[in-house]
Amino acid sequence: MKSTAFSQLRRGVIEFCVLALLLERERYGFELVRTLGAVEGLDVSEGTVYPLLSRLRADGLVTTRWDESKNGPPRRYYAVSPRGREALQAFEGEWRRFSAAVEELLGRRTA
Amino acid sequence: MRRRIGNPVADEFLDEVDRAARALPRSARQELVDDLEAHLREAVAEAGGDEARLRTIVDSLGSPEEIVAAAGAPEPRGELAGRDLAAIVLLLVGGMLAGVGWLVGLVLLWASPAWSVGQKLLGTLVFPGGLVLPVLLLGLGAAQTCSGGTLTRIENGHEVTTTVSSSCSGGSFPFWLAVLLVVVLTVGPILTAVYLVRAGRRTRPHLAYAAG
To answer: Cβ A90–B209 below 8 Å, yes or no?
Structure first.
């Protein structure tokens, strides 16, 4: 059973993983969620990504548009906004520093 | 079971999520179910009749409870940064310090990552000077002095009443207009300040990284 603190940490980090995926190109919901769910080790429940996307949208880090495709139902496409781009960049710097430090400390245990 | 997509497995899952989301605000609940419905439509199309494959896709979504938990997760109530609070206070009353205070508040406002450009524009334009304007108007109104009234004299044994027309100094400003302006110029900045305080609270992790 995950602790609440770690769940919040995971959720915060996964939000940036979503932004990173969208940085490559815009994606529609199903595609984005499935891609994220397939990443080994991320262990994300796909259904939980949708509320996450709602929050990112509400905060202006992500924009959406509807694509009325002829064959099949309309799809909602997600794209990263300039604000989201900046946020991702800032997070990336901190994350690399932080995770490198954690790795180092954990590595010392086995030394 | 409500028939949404037409596939029993998918529809049952959506029903379960809808039920589990009872405690959520209506818009959040509707949005969640709509998003998942769209997801499952695609899933049904992709599974192409293979029920086992559809089951796998539905299972990947997670349980209705954990999905709703993610939607209703209590947001850590953020704090308004000290500097941001100073910005708002200065915008509101800093104009009294020869206008310099307001300018400092303006600089702090635009330098802060807590607000979007639109919010910053709102803080700048409603109204420049903050509460200085209504205070000035009140001051002008108080400085306005009117004299006049009636004058009664005794002339030739009769009472003669003359009315001296009232004259006001300090400019001719209709009273009702002044009151209206004071109200608008007071309420506007105060409401804007309250709005900016609420909007400026950094509540979500990614907001700590998002610049204005």
So the answer is: yes
pLDDT higher than threshold 70 for residue B18: yes
pTM of the model: 0.62
Closest chain A residue by Cα to residue B5: A73
Confidence of residue A1 (pLDDT cuts 50, 70, 90): very low
Read off φ and ψ for residue B138, nearest 5 degrees: -60, -40
pLDDT recorded at residue B3: 72
- B41: closest chain A residue by CA: A73
Residues A45/B67, Cβ–Cβ less than 8 Å: yes
Say whether residue A82 is in contact with chain B using an 8 A CB cutoff: no
Q: Which of A8-12, A30-34, B45-49, B155-159 has the lowest mean pLDDT?
A: B155-159
Q: What letter would DSSP give residue A49?
A: H
Buried b (16+ CB within 10 A) or exposed e, B87-100: bbbbbbbbbbeeee
In terms of Cα–Cα distance, which of B104, B83, B77, B82 is closest to B93? Answer: B104
Tell me the shortest Cα–Cα distance from A104 to chain B, in angstroms.
Answer: 24
Question: Hey, are the CB atoms on B207 and A59 less than 8 Å from each other?
Answer: yes
A98 touches chain B (CB under 8 A): no
Question: Looking at beta carbons, which residues of chain B come within 8 Å of A53?
Answer: 35
Contacts of B42 in chain A (CB under 8 A): 29-30, 73
Q: What is the ipTM of this complex?
A: 0.87
The predicted pLDDT at position B212 comes to 47
